[in-house]
Amino acid sequence: MFFLCWQLIAIWILERVIYLKSEILRIKEEALKNLRELESPEALQELKVKILGKKGSLTAMLRQMGGLSPEERPIMGQVVNEVRTRLEQAWEERSAELEAMALQMRLATERIDITLPGTRISRGHIHPLTQVIEEIEDIFLGMGFQIAEGPEIESDYYNFEALNLPKEHPAREMQDSFYITEEILLRTQTSPVQVRTMEKLHPQLPVKIIAPGKVYRNDDDATHSPMFHQVEGLVVDQGIRMSDLKGILLNFSREMFGESREIRLRPSFFPFTEPSAEVDVSCMLCGGAGCRLCKGTGWIEILGSGMVHPKVLEMGGYNPQVVTGFAFGMGVERIAILKYGIEDMRLLFDNDLRFLQQF
Amino acid sequence: MKVSLEWLRELVDIDQSAVELAETLTRGGIEVEDVEDLNKGFEKVVIGEILSLTKHPDADRLLVCAVSVGHEEVTIVTGAQNLLTGDRIPVALIGANLPNGLSIKKSKLRGVVSLGMLCSREELLLDDTVGLDRSSDGILILPSTAPIGESFGHYLGLDNSVLDLELYPNRPDCLAMVNVAREVASLTQKKPHLPKWADQSQVLSLPVATDLRIIIEDQDLCWRYAGLMVEDVHIGPSPEWMQRRLKAAGVRPINNIVDITNYVMMEMGQPLHAFDREKIKGNVHVRVAQPEEKIVTLDNVERTLNPHTLIIADDTQPLAVAGVMGGLDSEVTETTKSLMIESAHFSPVSVRRTSRRLGLRSEASNRFEKGIDVSGSVAALGRVCDLLQDLGAGRPVAFVDEVKHIPPRRQVALSTERTSTVLGIELAVSEIHQVLEDLNFEYQENDGLFRVEIPTYRSDIEIEEDLMEEVARLIGYDRIPTTLPQGDQTQGRRTPEQEFRRRMRKVLAQSGLDEVLTYTFTRAEADAQWGSAKHSIPLLNPLREELGVMRTSLIPGLLDVAARNVARRNTDVSIFEIGNTYWGDEQPLKKLPKEELRVAAVAVGKSDRHWFNQSSSYDFYYLKGIMEAVAHEFGLKLEYRLAENQSLLHPGRSADIYLQNECVGFLGEIHPSLEKEWGLERAVLFELEMEPLFKKTRQTVRAHSIPRFPAIQRDLAVVVGVETSAEAVMSKIRKLGGNLLQHVEIFDVYTGKPIAEGHKSLAFTLRYQSLERTLTDEEVSLLNSRILEGIQQDFGAERRK
Ligand SMILES: [Zn+2]
């Protein structure tokens, strides 16, 4: 009886094992079938929970194993784990498939006209003359110069007399001035800043400044504007040589107009320098071979310069027996015209937006 | 100064072409502005003789001419009717390019081949001084002495070049051919052919005139006055060679006497004037004019003189305006029998003023203004004697020479060592010797130290540096090496204020505004409108009346630019300028005025149209946004108060801008009543003073750490009366929110249904945050409703549902 009973129990158990096993396999097959039909990641997740979740059907199977013998439990456990692994793998494959399909779908539908212009970032433009002045400033700042300033409405003394241009000097005629009173005028050059700076700094050495700013002459045509801009330069120290002037200006020309530029000095006349020199730079268009821009000469005049006249040093408070200096002055409009190839100088003060917005 | 090369060759050997010589002079410091080839257009034009004239077989109005051009005979068809057989005429051969632009090619006229063209005066751009009278009806007919086959240009003396010198004011000596020759000689290491007549002996051997005295009454204005008395004068034309040279120099030939005075002036730089001796009554006075004294000048204009005018007068009346123009009365005429030729020195300042005042400028006045060599007066008269005799124009009989002042000859020291140091070139003493030799200067040298005698014609050389320049330009500026200053190294850096301006410009440009630069002088009325008429500074000599005063506001300039652009259909304008305004506090100015830097902007039209973003009109809030960007950049707290100046700005749409209780500018829409005047609709603008902004700029940013606890955000919408300002509501919210309210922002403003008329809805985002703990929903809700209550109390606001 016991035996039979045992037998019966054994048969019952065996049947349960078989039943459980087939049930597990059924769940597996069904899950794999459903998996292939599912189209969304959400449905996929839902199915996963239904089978593998806490209350899932496979998990329920595991719970039913409680009635199995200690020998059978590991066997069944192994079956369940195998199925679980197989299903999880299938799930991953299917969701990867679905993700790839979704990506395909997204890529197929998301199409824009890449030739349409981008969202406009509204940015203004800095006037070309300001840009040139800042570039000149940066070049000289890099060579250890400071930026000095002086008034635009200037006294006759600083604009002329302190620059060795006494009243009735014929060289005053080179510049037609705008007068406010007999003694006060709109400065015709940035050179008065030379003397103002020396007066302020002396006896300090070295003096090494540039002075950009507006200047005024009573003139108005295609090549002259009544208001224009200059940058003045001044270096005063013991032992300053004319060759130093040439070196500084060569550096400047190369930074401004390109590495391969050369410069040449020509004798000239300014009342406040002696010796004086006009400075030409090799043509930036033809490189010196000769073209329309340089009128076939290969050279373009860009600035005036010279060794500071002893009288000017004296008026600035320095002793010309002890120190020497050089000075130079350039027209910003001219440099802008050369740099940007501007055809008519008047465009610079016309302020037409179609012109300004190119810069 | 126009320098005829043909003339110059007489004074110095030249082995360069005109263009090469121009380059040599320019590189030596005498700038040659232009080289004019007088023969241009006359190449391939030769003198021919008409051998025969026959009627064209197929054209009544044409003639077929056989023309000899020397070595050959050519057939030329012409339509001219003024020709006779044997006439000598200019013939343009195949390949000629005439001065009037015509190119001559082989052609066939009604079956007859024509190998050139016979030329008229018009085609050669010649005046009626050339050729026979018959020439005016057609072809230019030359005198029968014209050599057949000779180049026409050579025949006219036009195979010559003229150098146009652009002289600096320090080299008036080069207004004389002899000194240009000296210059060429120095630069090319030649000796000039300084002629024998360039001395005074010839004149000094004449007796001193006894019948006429020179009385210089103002010796500051006249240092020297010499006169040459000439008898047996024969007035007539001057010779061809002289006329040719004068023409090349740009001087019109008149008669032998006038031409001699002009010729000597061009050659030696000394202006001369010939008076009819018989018209001088008594002595010659050099004096200033009396008030209202009058003279009829050579140009037949009566001129009223004043006590600033230096004149030459006899005992009874003015004879000439000194250095400027002679009088008609004492002019040399065809009947003149005797002369006094003046060679004087007049004050440059006096001549300049007078020639300016009378509007008379001439070769003579130009030379006096620039300064002439007072030592050369009598030498010039020596040259006159020479030419009078050569031309048979008159007989020098006596002279006078009244001298008040001759500057002493200068000696200037020149050190080889110092010159080397200043130029940066290692110079040998021998090189300086060579330069001084080339210059033809006298000097002594001792141990590298030179004492140089400066010739009287080089008035520009006064100090050692002047001689250094002579050395540098003669050895060539190319000898100067390139070095860099040897002294202490310095660091270049913008001052904080300079950096501030640069940043301001950047912020504005990055915000979408274009920078413009306008003239700082403007129309008085426009400046008075936006600036201050009381302070604006008028120019004495403005270029145009509409550029008459220095601006006290940047706005008119910007409005002009905006209007000009709109008129050119650049309809959307948003621009700014940073620049000075000028403030005088008295009229006329006694000291330099204040220059106040400002920044201003004008916007009109719409933001860019774009397919993706909608465009919006530029309005008050557009510029205010930009101003807020500025405030943010510089850490400034700007305050906006209703604008006080409501005549220029729309009273409902403008604000004065305050910075720490100081008004620093304004912002707003232009007053509708001004729209027509400026041609702009709904322009918005601002103007700010730069200095107060700079002074109150935050020096550095103080960083706050990021709070560790989460923030809670709540929106709050309230309905208030339209006149209630958003800022008032916001500051109430801030006050009620206390420490926990970290940030308030307005995100919506709405009027219209369902909001009751006269009301608007304001919607705010409030962010609550504690630095110490996490806030609870309950306490935030409580705080939020307290804020709402407070607003309701103060503004009668209700919460919008
Ligand atoms: Zn070129």
What structural keywords apply?
heterodimer; A: 359 residues; alpha+beta; BirA Bifunctional Protein, domain 2; 2 domains; seven-stranded mixed beta sheet; two-stranded antiparallel ribbon; 12 helices; 9 strands; 18% strand; rod-shaped; B: 801 residues; Phenylalanyl-tRNA Synthetase, Chain B, domain 1; OB fold (Dihydrolipoamide Acetyltransferase, E2P); Phenylalanyl-tRNA Synthetase, Chain B, domain 3; 6 domains; five-stranded antiparallel beta sheet; 22 helices; 38 strands; binds zinc ion
Structure description:
The complex is a heterodimer of chains A (359) and B (801). Chain A is of the alpha+beta class and 359 residues long. Chain A contains twelve helices and nine strands. Chain A folds into two domains: 2-109; 128-356, Bira Bifunctional Protein, Domain 2 (BirA Bifunctional Protein, domain 2, 2-Layer Sandwich), CATH 3.30.930.10. Chain A has helices at residues 2-37, 41-52, 57-64, 72-109, 128-142, 156-159, 192-201, 242-257, 310-315, 332-340, 347-350, 353-356, and strands at 146-147, 153-155, 184-186, 207-216, 227-237, 263-270, 273-282, 299-308, 324-331. In chain A, the strands form two sheets. A seven-stranded mixed β-sheet of chain A has the order 1-4-5-9-8-7-6. A two-stranded antiparallel ribbon of chain A has the order 2-3. The longest helix of chain A is centred in the N-terminal third of the chain and has 38 residues, at 72-109. Chain B has 801 residues and is an alpha+beta fold. Chain B folds into six domains: 2-38 and 160-194, Phenylalanyl-tRNA Synthetase, Chain B, domain 1 (2-Layer Sandwich); 45-155, Nucleic acid-binding proteins (OB fold (Dihydrolipoamide Acetyltransferase, E2P)), CATH 2.40.50; 201-403, 3-Layer(bba) Sandwich (Phenylalanyl-tRNA Synthetase, Chain B, domain 3); 411-478, Phenylalanyl-tRNA Synthetase, Chain B, domain 1, CATH 3.30.56; 496-695, Bira Bifunctional Protein, Domain 2 (BirA Bifunctional Protein, domain 2); 712-799, Alpha-Beta Plaits (2-Layer Sandwich). In chain B, the strands form ten sheets. Chain B has a seven-stranded mixed β-sheet. In chain B, strands 5-4-3-6-9 form a five-stranded antiparallel β-sheet. Chain B has a five-stranded mixed β-sheet with strand order 11-14-17-18-19. In chain B, a hairpin with a 6-residue loop joins β31 (638-642) and β32. In chain B, α5 (177-188) runs antiparallel to α13 (429-439). The model of chain B has no long low-confidence stretch (mean pLDDT 92). At the A-B interface, α5, β1, β2, β5 and α8 of A face α9, α12, α14, α15 and β25 of B.
